[in-house]
Amino acid sequence: MHSTLSERLTYLSTQFGNLPAIIEPDRQISFATLNRHSRNLAGHFAQLGFKAGDRVALWLPNCIEWVECLLACARLGVTVISVNTRFRSHEVQDVIERGKTRWLIYWPEFKGIGFKGILDDIDPLVTESLRASLTLDKIQVLAETDCEPPLEHGDHGAITFTTSGTTSLPKFVLHTQSGLICHADAIAGAFQYDDSTRILASAPFCGTFGFSTLSGALLTGRPVICEPVSNPVSLLNLIRQHKITHTFANNSLIQQIMEESDNREDFRTCRLFGFAAFAPALGELFDMALKNALPLTGLYGSSELQALLAAQPTDPTQGDLSVLHQPGGLLVHPNARVRTRDPETGHLLPLGQSGELEILSPSHMSAYLDQPEETHKAFTEDGYFKTGDLGWCVSDRQFVFQARMGDSLRLGGFLVNPAEIEQAVEELPGVLAAQIVGAQKGDKLVPVAFVLTTPGFVAIPDEWVSLCKRRLAGFKVPVHFEVLEDFPTVQSANSTKIQKHRLREMAQAILDGQFADS
């Protein structure tokens, strides 16, 4: 197995040469040219002063230059800190400051966003710590200009992803080149990539979800189709035009793509669409997929373990198909293993019993950047990563994800997945979506429901309570329903995530009689 990205790309350029590596709507690049461009960039970066151990903030959308810069930095031993294009001054300053970033690469005119103004809003002492900033047009010129790179630095921390930061400051999660390659090979094997495979990158490369979609294809010689700015209509057009076989996206986006189609033939080349349930309700996703003959499977991943870590099997010889449309899955690496542990007793649990998921996989992070103590605490003594997720195991390689441990509820002495209650609440009259959190009422933890309703619907919470009592065990029935216009959210690289901790604070204030709309 290749241990560096440069080794793998050199191999791919000899095997696939002029075949397309990355395809955008109005241009494409072959494996051979991608190899040449990344070598040129590495040479120019070295002349500019990039050194092994430096960190560069890569603030670009999905595009060829994003990939070229990553590969060039990897050759030099420079770590890329991926930056979401939706970030603004506060978040970018945090990346530069806590990430100890020395270089910045960005696209000043992208989507009409005032990147220069965003940088001007950052504390000057922070921006002065940068050696230099390079713009997209400069990168394009350097990539085309021949320049011999220095000797390859070897395997090292190649890229960091940020955790979602829904409850605290995001962590920077560091992955090595060899770890990225190993995971890419496992993805290609698990999803049966072949010469006809065409991968649609519908999630941003700056997050682990989009990056794993990219790496699993690109690093195994399969073309990646992407665009800097996308929407359901443009993605559907790419599916039609390029005969897409696979994509991996959040449930809401996949549903929106199908809603734009009026012909099931649009999806005739699609072999598998994997979904992560980021949106609070799955809506008509499964019915629409059946109508369009679009194969779906649930996924699982994290910044620490990489995305596409697991997917529910579609072949009965591989695992239990009864959980096909649930998050989690069969671990893509054959040597990976999963187990659950009781969070209170610390004892390992049998198959089928909910507890904290622990996963052993070659795709795990090398570290939380500059946080050795946090890194040590993240793993068990025998090398399993403590996911902080609630779930249960079908086997030692297949599992079902239920919720974040911090979101799970201990109700009536039982560990309860809030999604179970949310599903029942979303079936109530007038309810579009629901979020369930726990709050203290006396000496007990009780469920509180926050709901979004259909326009014009007049909520009668007492009726909702009565219906819930007929459908749920008494300890699962929400003690209070609160109608909101929107859920509190935070933007991550892959989606808009609901801030459960804020809902918990609101729920407690309600029960304490201190809640106010302000």
Strand proportion: 25-35%
* CATH-defined superfamily of the largest domain: ANL, N-terminal domain
Looking at the overall shape, the CATH architecture of the largest domain is 3-Layer(aba) Sandwich
Which strand order do you get reading across the main beta sheet?
2-1-10-9-11-12-13-14-15-20-19-17-16
Return the domain count.
3
Average pLDDT, all residues: 92
Measured as a percent range, the helix fraction is: 25-40%
The coarse overall form would be: globular
Main pleated-sheet profile: 13 strands, mixed
The end-to-end distance, rounded to whole angstroms, is 57 Å
Count of DSSP helices? 16
- Which regions are unreliable across 5 or more consecutive residues at pLDDT < 50? none
By CATH reckoning, the class of the largest domain would read Alpha Beta
Radius of gyration over C-alpha positions, nearest whole angstrom: 23 Å
User: In the CATH scheme, what's the topology name of the largest domain?
Assistant: Rossmann fold
Q: Count all strands and give the number.
A: 27
Secondary-structure-based class equals: alpha/beta
Organism: Orrella marina
Keywords: Ligase
Domain AMP-binding enzyme C-terminal: 420-492
GO molecular function: medium-chain fatty acid-CoA ligase activity
